[in-house]
Amino acid sequence: MTYSRFAELWTHRFRKYTHIFRAHLSGHIARWWFWAQRRFLMNGRKLIAVVRTEHFGDIVAAEPLLRHLRELYPDACLVWFVKPAFRELVDVNPYVDRVFAEYCVTQRKIILEEGVFDEVFELQFRNNNYCPTCPAFYDNPIAEAKNINVSTYFRFGNLLEVFAQSAGLSTLPADRQPAVYLQQRHRDRVDALQLPDQYIVIHTQTNYAPKDWPAQNWEELVAYLLDRYPFDVVEIGLRSSLGIRSSRYHNLCGRLSILETAEVIRRGQYFIGLDSGPAHLANAAGVFGFILMGSLDAFPEYNPFSGSYGDQQNCRLIREYGKPCSSLPLPVVLQRLEEMLS
Question: Which residue, of 60, 177, 208, 263, is most buried by count of CB atoms within 10 Å of its CB?
Answer without folding.
Answer: 60
